[in-house]
Structures are given as C-alpha cells and as structure tokens.
Input
Amino acid sequence: MTTRPNELTAVEAARRIDAGELTVEALVRACLDRIEEREPDIAAWAHLDREQVLDAAVAHDGSGPMHGVPVGVKDIVDTADAPTTYGSPIYRDHWPETDAVCVNRIHAAGGIVLGKTVTTEFAARYPGPTRNPHDVRHTPGGSSSGSAAAVADCMVPLGIGTQTAGSVIRPATFCGVYGYKPTFGLLSFSGVRHYAESVDTLGCMARCVEDLAFFRDVLLGVEPGDLEPHAGRLRLGFCRTHHWEEADEATRSSLDDAAKRLAAAGVSVEDVNLPRGLEDSLDVYNLLQQFEGARCLGPDHESHPDLLSVDARALHDLGMAVEADRYREALRRFHGWRVAVDEAFAGYDAVLTPSAAGEAPRGLRFTGDIAFNYLWTALHLPAVTIPAFRGPQGLPVGAQLVAPRHEDDRLLSVAARVAQLLA
Amino acid sequence: MTTRPNELTAVEAARRIDAGELTVEALVRACLDRIEEREPDIAAWAHLDREQVLDAAVAHDGSGPMHGVPVGVKDIVDTADAPTTYGSPIYRDHWPETDAVCVNRIHAAGGIVLGKTVTTEFAARYPGPTRNPHDVRHTPGGSSSGSAAAVADCMVPLGIGTQTAGSVIRPATFCGVYGYKPTFGLLSFSGVRHYAESVDTLGCMARCVEDLAFFRDVLLGVEPGDLEPHAGRLRLGFCRTHHWEEADEATRSSLDDAAKRLAAAGVSVEDVNLPRGLEDSLDVYNLLQQFEGARCLGPDHESHPDLLSVDARALHDLGMAVEADRYREALRRFHGWRVAVDEAFAGYDAVLTPSAAGEAPRGLRFTGDIAFNYLWTALHLPAVTIPAFRGPQGLPVGAQLVAPRHEDDRLLSVAARVAQLLA
Output
C-alpha cells in the first residue's frame, strides 16, 4: 500500500522534498484533496483559501528547514493573510495587520500556513462545529478542536494549539495524535488571543514525537535538531493524581498496563504522590481561570455583550465576582505548589499520568473534562500525550508524560522512547 | 497657594469629584491646559484628541471608583478609540479593533484615557521625542518616557508603563515620580505589544504611593482598597548588588544615607547579599532579552525591515544569532535564581536598592542604564521607586524597594511607610 503525501509525517515529507522525491505542490495538493473529501464530515477548518495556498505551494522553492510543509493554525492566532475570528462572531470580519510570532516563525522556516483551524469561542468552552475523525458523533475535544482533528485525519501533518487547562493535550488524546504543551512561556504567545494569562501556553500536535520536536524548534525560532529517543536506563514516576477515580475503568487499566509493560522492558517505574495540599488545586485553578478569563473577556463584554455565548457570559460574571484576596491567595498557592512539585519530580526523567479521563465524550457540546490537564498547565510543566491505547468504544486513549519545568528536551526524547516501547 | 486640579493626586481628585467639590470637566480641562502650556517643551504625548476627551469629560457622570480621573496610556497599549503606533512608523496608521484589557479596566472603573504617551520604538531602545520636565536637556528615561514625564509635569495624575528591563522604574526615577512594577503576570498584558515575553510586565506611575495602590487595584479589576502604611517594626534588607560600583557617588551616598535615616527611625536595616552566580545575571539577561526580542520583532522584520530603527535591526540580528542551547540555559539559570532569591529575601518586609545608576543622562539618545532594574524584572519581583533625593545636577534620584514574588500588597504598604520616613 502506497503512503499518500498527506499521510507522511512532517519530517519525512520535508526530507523527501529536500531530496527531490516530492514537490511542495504535490504535498499541498494531497492535503487539499484530503480536506475536500473529508471536510464536510469533520469541519476542522475555520478558513482555508485553496487558490491562495496552491499559489504559495507552486511558488515555493522548497527551501528552509520546513521545505514547504503545511501547518494548520488555530484560529485564535493572528494571521495577516487570513481572517482571524477567535471563534467568535464579534470577530467575523477581523483581519489582523500583523502575524503572530509563531506564524512568522513558520514563514521564516519555509513552512506554509494551510489555513486556520476551528477553535472554541476564545479558546474557552463554547464549541465549534468540528467532529472527531474516529467517530463523527463524538467531540474532537477542545479548545484546539480543528488542529487535532485535521492532524488526526491526515489533512495536514502539523497543527498549532494553545492550552489553558487541557486544550492541546485533551483534543490530541481524543483524536489519537501526539500533543505537546511546552513549559509555560517557552513558545511565544505574542499575537495569540489570551484566555487566562498566567497559564496560557502555545503547543502543537503531530503524528509522531519526532515531528513535535521538529515543530517545536521551528516555533522557537532555532535550527531544528535531530531527536534522539532517550537511551540508557529510564526512570519514570507514575502519578495517578487525586483525580484517579474520575478516570474511567479503561483509562485506569490502560495506564496500569503501560506501567507494567514499561517496567517489563527495563524502565524503572515508581509511584509518586503529589505534595500535600494539591487536593484543593482544581478549585484554586478554577478560581484563577475565572478571574483572569473574565478580564480577558472584558473588552468584548463591554463592546458586544450580546455576541458572547452564554458560556462566555457566565465565565465573565463568575470571574468578576471573585474577591481580590482569593485571587491573590490562588496565585500564592500555585507559586508554592510549583516549587514543591519541581522537588517531588526532580528525581525522574518524566512522570506518567493519564492524558484524559476517558475516550472522547459523545456529542459536540462538551469538549471534555480538565481533571488530568489543568494541574500540569497551572504548574507550568511540559507535557506530551502519546496515543497508545483504544477504549471500549474503539476511540483513542492516551498516556501522558510530564517533566520538570524547562526539561522539555528531555521530555521529548523520553516520549520518543516510551512511544517505541508502548507501540 | 491654591493647588490646581491637575496637581491633585488621583485619590484626592476622585474624592473631590465624589464629594461634589470638583467636576470631571474641570479636572480634565486643567490637565489639558497644562498640556497645552507644556507639551511644546516636553513632548510627552503620541496622540491626544482634545475635543474627544473634553466631550467624554462633559458626558461623564463622575461614577465608578475612578470618578472620571484621567490616565496617560503608553502607546504600546492597544486602544480602540485612538491610534496605537507602538512607537514605530510601521504602525503610523494603526488603529486597533479592541482595547487592551488594562484600558478596558480603566473604562470599567470610570476612568478617562486622556491620550497615548510616547514610548521608545516597540518599548526597546530607540527613543521618542520626550524630554525630562526637570531639565529638558536630559532624557526622561525609557521606554515609558511619555507616561513618566506627563505624570511628573502634572499633565495627568496616573500613567501606564511597561517594564522589560527597567522601563517603568527608571523613567519614574529620572522624572521624580513614584513607579511600581508588579510581580510578573499580576496585571494583564493582553493587548499590549510584547518585547521579551518572559519578563514583560505592566506597571504604573503616580505622584504618591497611595495612587499606585489605587491604580493597581483598578488595573487588576478589583474594588480599590485603602492603603495603610506599614505599621509596627519594619525589617528591610539593603542590597547594593554587584553593580554598586556602577552607581555614581551621589546615588551611593543617598542610599547609604537613606539606610541610616531609616535605621535611626527604628527600622531594622540589614545588608543582604545576592546568592552566588548572580554576578553573571546581566549577561544571561541580555541573552534572554535578545533571543525573545528578536522573535517579537520577527513579523515586522519580515514585512518592513526598512522601517525598523538601526537599534531594532541590531537587536533582531543579535537575537537570531543566539544558540538554542544558550537560551535554554539562560531560562534554567533564571529559574534557579528566582527560587534562590525568594529564599534570600524571605525574611524581609522589603529590600532597599538603588533605582538607577544616577540622575537622568544628558541628551535624548540614551534612556539610561539597566544595571539596577533588569535583575528584579527578570526575577519577577515587585518593585517600587520612591523619588526621595536630588543629585548634584538637581535632578531626581530614587530609592527602590523590592519584595518577594506575590508580596505586592506588603510592598506597597512598606513603600508608603518608607516614603513618609524619607520625606
């Protein structure tokens, strides 16, 4: 069976273009053909100008580390050559003057922005029309719904997402692709719509760990290096977290099974508990997200309250009702928890934990639970999800790896090794 | 001698309006008159529409915690009812669709944005036309040049600034006003142009500490509380830092004198040293600022390289030449230093340190040295400058107080007490 160009990983597609075995035009055309075939069912794209993209592909000389590889960009990211709606009717006709820094990095590396992918409204809770490619009756997860679905459905090899609670890791998991949320602040958020500023993080999706590392280097604006899977003895923590009982049976048994298989392969896997006090962390996180989320919605709430969803209005009202002292206390508590978890995780190459509470929920209204995501985001820790399992409904179930802050490189090489071992 | 309305502090002006002793129109008119008189010499404003502002003042009902008090907003902050140039000819005709969150908070509190104040190009090094009100042959400091000069010259009681190295504290110091740079992330940066994202911080200037606390609450979107000067025994550290010898004689003797006077007033003042390794911090900071600064300039460098200043082009080229490993090492080192300095400062209510290396330099080209600012910004610590002294040229010299992360409330009440003791 021949692999069609749109099914290639980004690194392999770039290699073939560089070697003269594939043209940028053929790659982009294959992606566009796949989209034309599947978009009526999946609805992953908020904006895609077929002619404009084909012109760019034909004109592309194949240079730069990306060699013309196309990317889907979440529609809360500003683009100067495409409209940017932030998933809201308020911005239906909004066309930014300047690219976000991450879009500029894609251009500078010789990549092509194929189009803008569907986001929930302002990357919060109100869903877009995107469906899960594995079963269109199910949510793809959110808020980076379109990027996850497009990458999973081989419409594009790489997608940009953002995560405030679980908006990269969860949709990647539900759609059965790899997702990477870096250490807070590593990748520029400049030109991206904020949701809750103390936790908002730019991330990406792909169909292998090597592509995540490659794309991360592009987005960081450095020369992409080769990713070497972690060699030698691997030491993993296994952190079920205090939300373990909220994961469904299939998720719990998949994770326990993964820990056993990794141990059988020679990996040291030790149970690790979260420091005391973190049982309160979901409540504290919610307070923080509401406080900051309300303020980010403020300008739109002032100018177009009628065009906000009921979800956004509720978030605004909840957040404006949070007392100042409780917000300051929330900031202080997470500050302390970051230091404590850094210490608790310091002895491990990475920590294994569920990616989500279960398979993608049925229906499009609810994009999924944040229980296994909000904590790592708010702790500013880097995380990767590996699409290692299937659940009882045949939908993807992931394994998440989390590493200490600023240990992104180690995390990616560990994830590459763990993905091999669980394959 | 009668105090003219434009000379009032924000809190006093708001009180008088609330009590019916002053009208919003009279206050705004006094500010506009002062600007008309002084702007030819000071050049603090990038945009000011006198008719629009007067209409807003006449229509204002005096409600909200700000009661119509006017504010100067640095021109790297997006405003929907005024152009926003970011100090660059690239954005000469740029008119944002949406207010920055901080501008929305001013509106929501019943404040009036009087106009946009001059910034250096993209809040970096290339200066604007603003002059120091104390001596127009001298720089007002940068990058928040216009806000500092306008507040100092009684054109407006409050100014918004941003700080990446020292861009709030230094111009406030040079212009002889109070400046406050909060803990990193406390105030929303949404809708503000980024310079170096891991350190960019929104801050403010005023003519007393009480106004800083009041304005901070407005910008945070909470009900302004009363500021109580720190009561009881005060424990200060005195941190000369490894840059002490770079401060001029007048600054060093002013700080030593302040420490003595505070001790004589019953304050405990202990010398505190920075942890080991921080001697390298300026080099590490510069690398970090160049790396991130180059990326924030990327979109403009792609679209309008010819319209960037020579300073901006140099920053871009320096930053793009930084190797990935050195940047990651810089992030890790500052991460470790933040934890170490938190511990070193934990026993103090605040730490006394110079605000700048000396008086405002002569000429407008150089906005001043970052030696006494970059470290606190990169450590994410809150800082306040108090205009306590005069230098040999008769220009203002400040005393800076720094507190542990998230101890902003304590810092402001300590600053209020120290300002009283040094008065």
User: Anything to note?
Assistant: The CA atoms of residues 376 and 383 of chain A lie 7 Å apart. The longest strand of chain A covers residues 383-390. The mean pLDDT of chain A is 97. Residues 281-303 of chain A form the longest helix (23 residues).
